[in-house]
Amino acid sequence: MAERPEDLNLPNAVITRIIKEALPDGVNISKEARSAISRAASVFVLYATSCANNFAMKGKRKTLNASDVLSAMEEMEFQRFVAPLKESLEVYRREQKGKKEARKDKDKKADSEEQDKSREEENDDDDERMEEEEQNEEEEVDN
Amino acid sequence: GPSRLARLPLARVKALVKADPDVSLASQEAVFVLARATELFVETIAKDAYVYAQQGKRKTLQRKDLDNAIEAIDEFAFLE
């Protein structure tokens, strides 16, 4: 499924906020400069993806993983990003683990509340849950 | 700080990853790290460009500041 070109832009508001927070107070950014940075950011993602994918292929893996992205950063001469990225990843992993456990508890609670429903309805809910879990392990990129 | 979660929406970053025909699967973690790396990239390029605005005694970052930074800095060669 082809993406329209405009779908490959990153949100202007977020880009602007990141720029403003990086610069001293009172500094402004022209619309043209902001657009140029936004486009550069999209190119950065595309280039980093391609680079990371090479590492995945070298490792004979079909799934691009976090360490492939970190290897790509080193390859692209952004080694100084690696340490902060590893830190962020640790926080992200803890958060995801917390979410998973919260979901399991919620499911346990929902199961006991659903015992009165028909069997057909319960099966549908199981299918939904399974789909969700799969999505949380890997984002399938259909190509 | 470095442990702040990505603010770029992961869905948008994922759409860019999907645009690569050679990529079949990407883990959610990979998309997250890419998003976070892109934020660091935006911070970096903005700061590097700002040096040129300062040289021009301006408080507004302009397109030419970006162009100058991209031309001068090796890591930004992929943008040329």
Could you give a short description of this structure?
The complex is a heterodimer of chains A (143) and B (80). Chain A has 143 residues and is mainly α.
What would you note in describing this structure?
The complex is a heterodimer of chains A (143) and B (80). Chain A has helices at residues 12-22, 31-58, 66-75, 82-113, 119-137; strands at residues 28-29, 63-64, 138-140. Chain A is mainly alpha-helical and 143 residues long. Chain A has two domains: 1-77, Histone, subunit A (Orthogonal Bundle), CATH 1.10.20; 82-142. The longest helix of chain A has 32 residues, at 82-113. Chain A is extended and about 60 Å long. Helices cover 59% and strands 6% of the residues of chain B. With 80 residues, chain B is mainly alpha-helical. The chains are: A mainly alpha (143), B mainly alpha (80). Chains A and B meet through helix 1, strand 1, helix 2, strand 2 and helix 3 of A and helix 1, strand 1, helix 2, strand 2 and helix 3 of B.
Total domain count of chain A: 2
Q: Mind telling me which CATH architecture of the largest domain in chain A this is?
A: Orthogonal Bundle
What share of the residues of chain A lie within helices? 55-70%
Mean pLDDT of chain B: 93
Our estimate of the beta-strand percent of chain B is 5-15%
Q: Which CATH architecture of chain B is right?
A: Orthogonal Bundle
| Strand-pairing-aware structural class of chain A | mainly alpha
Name the features:
heterodimer, A: 143 residues, mainly alpha, Histone, subunit A, B: 80 residues, 2 strands, nucleus (chain A), phosphoprotein (chain A), DNA-binding (chain A), CBFA_NFYB_domain (chain A), coiled coil (chain A)
Which SSEs are present, and which pair or pack?
The complex is a heterodimer of chains A (143) and B (80).
Chain A (H helix, E strand, L loop, with lengths): L11 H11 L5 E2 L1 H28 L4 E2 L1 H10 L6 H32 L5 H19 E3 L3
Helix pairs in contact in A: 1-2, 2-3, 3-4
Chain B lengths: L9 H9 L6 E3 H28 L4 E2 L1 H10 L8
Helix pairs in contact in B: 1-2, 2-3
